[in-house]
Each structure stands twice: as structure tokens, then as C-alpha cells.
Specification:
Radius of gyration: 18 Å
Structural class: alpha/beta
Distance between the termini: 37 Å
CATH class of the largest domain: Alpha Beta
Mean pLDDT: 89
Helix content: 25-40%
Number of domains: 2
Shape: elongated
Low-confidence stretches: 1-6, 12-34
Strand content: 15-25%
Order of helices and strands: HEHEHEHEEHEHEHEEHH
């Protein structure tokens, strides 16, 4: 059986190719993609592996190509606000979806996530808790405060009464994992799913549930899309039992019940 880490690595490799093919087109201000044969999905960086697989399944079923723009939710919301060509927007938090509420159809919550401390494989600094991150000798990296993962990280640190001076503040959660995997930082706070996607160079240190937060992920079609049926079909796949099973396999939790 192919290991989860191998599967994640393969999905991320495909994502990298998709991003390369996307190029500067993802930041164009010319409106939606305008082709029923292709849709553009703007998605939070933490969704890279899971959405790459969902995109493959969608294309196989619908015959429509999916081009992804993976980045921090705050950056994606700004791009949508500025008229970038997006057909679907999936955010790692509700506030960034709210920033574009007049530009999207009714959002639906499709997943949730929790935080974990990410450290180098083998945990060489013997980090066991949030309190350990206050050690001034540790190099801790966080996502920037405007990034959902950065906002959530500061929330859990505040709840634990821990003060951390990050050596850098990254514009998306994947960059935090990269810094740790390259040895440029000793630890960071990211989503559980990002630790799993980080492969064999990193591992996770659990944050107790009573000190953790739940990140809620909403998805919506963009009103300016010129391929509304194709965009809705992708959203429907994400919300379906099949979609939620894929998300579960990559470590995501069901959306919170209301």
C-alpha cells in the first residue's frame, strides 16, 4: 500500500506543475477564465494536496481542466477583490471570505482544521509544548498575523499565556513548514494537515484540544465566473461525500455543525 506521505508528496508534485503552468495568469485583472473547458480555483495554501487530488477527480469526471492558485487566504481575497480571474474561492477562514461576500455566491463550510507545532524530524530541540516555544534560544517562525494560520497561532499562544518573538512572519502556512524543513527555524505553528504534507523532514507536536482552535473553511463560486455550471460542479464535489472523504484522508476534519 502506498504510504500517506508518499501520496501527499505525489499530490504536491502535481500541484507544483499546475502552479507553474498557471504562471502570471492567476493574478490577471481581466475577470474570470471565460472558458467552460477550464476553471480557476483560488484556494488556501493548506488545501494544496487535498484540492490537487480533487481537481484530478473533477477533471476525470467532468472533462474540465482545473487551474489552481494556492496562496494565503488574505492574498487570495485581495486578488478576488481586485478582479483576478477566479471561478471558485476556498478560504481557510470565514473573515477572508467575508471580505468578498459581495463578489461571491452563498459560501458553504466544507472542512475544519486544527493546529500543531511543526518541528524538524526527530524533534532535535525536544519541544513538547507551547510553553517551550517561549525559549529565547529557539528560532520560531509563524505565519503573518493577517494569514489565517498566523491569526490562529497567536490565538493559541495568547490562550496559553506564551509570548513568542518569531524570527520571521510568512505570507502563507506552507512557507512556515518549509522554513522548519530546511533548518532555518526550529519550530512553527501550522495546521495538522500541513505537518502531514511536509513529508519526512518534519514532524508534529500536538497542542492540547483545550488550548487549540478550530479553523473553519468556507467555499463559494465567484459571481463573475463565465463558467458557472463548471464552477458549481467543482464546489459540489468538494461538498459531496466523496470530497469529504478525500479531505479526511489528508487530515481535515468535518465542518463544524451549527
Amino acid at each position: 500500500m502506498v504510504s500517506t506521505r508518499t501520496r501527499l508528496a505525489a499530490a504536491l508534485a502535481v500541484a507544483a506543475l499546475l502552479l507553474a503552468a498557471c504562471g502570471d495568469d492567476t493574478t490577471s485583472s481581466s475577470g474570470s477564465s471565460g472558458s467552460a473547458g477550464e476553471i480557476k480555483v483560488f484556494a488556501a495554501a493548506s488545501l494544496t494536496a487535498a484540492f490537487t487530488e480533487l481537481g484530478q477527480r473533477y477533471t476525470a469526471a467532468e472533462g474540465t481542466k482545473v487551474t489552481f492558485n494556492f496562496a494565503g487566504s488574505q492574498a487570495l481575497a485581495t486578488q478576488v477583490r481586485q478582479g483576478a480571474p477566479a471561478d471558485v474561492f476556498a478560504s481557510a477562514d470565514i473573515p477572508n471570505m467575508d471580505k468578498v461576500k459581495d463578489l461571491v455566491d452563498t459560501p458553504r463550510n466544507f472542512a475544519s482544521n486544527r493546529l500543531q507545532i511543526v518541528v524538524e524530524q526527530g524533534n532535535p530541540k525536544d519541544i513538547k509544548s507551547l510553553q517551550d516555544l517561549a525559549n529565547p534560544d529557539l528560532k520560531v517562525v509563524l505565519a503573518a498575523p493577517e494569514v489565517p494560520a498566523g491569526k490562529y497561532a497567536r490565538q493559541v499562544l495568547d490562550q496559553a499565556g506564551v509570548t513568542v518573538g518569531p524570527v520571521s512572519e510568512e505570507d502563507n502556512v506552507k512557507a512556515v513548514v518549509t522554513k522548519v524543513s530546511l533548518g532555518e527555524a526550529d519550530a512553527g505553528i501550522v495546521y495538522v494537515t500541513d505537518v502531514a504534507a511536509g513529508g519526512d523532514k518534519v514532524e508534529g507536536v500536538d497542542i492540547p484540544r483545550d488550548r487549540n482552535v478550530t479553523a473553519t473553511y468556507p467555499i463559494a463560486t465567484v459571481k463573475a465566473t463565465k463558467a458557472p455550471e463548471a464552477a458549481q460542479a467543482f464546489m459540489d464535489l468538494v461538498l459531496s461525500a466523496e470530497g469529504r472523504q478525500v479531505l479526511k484522508e489528508y487530515g481535515f476534519l468535518p465542518p463544524p455543525t451549527t
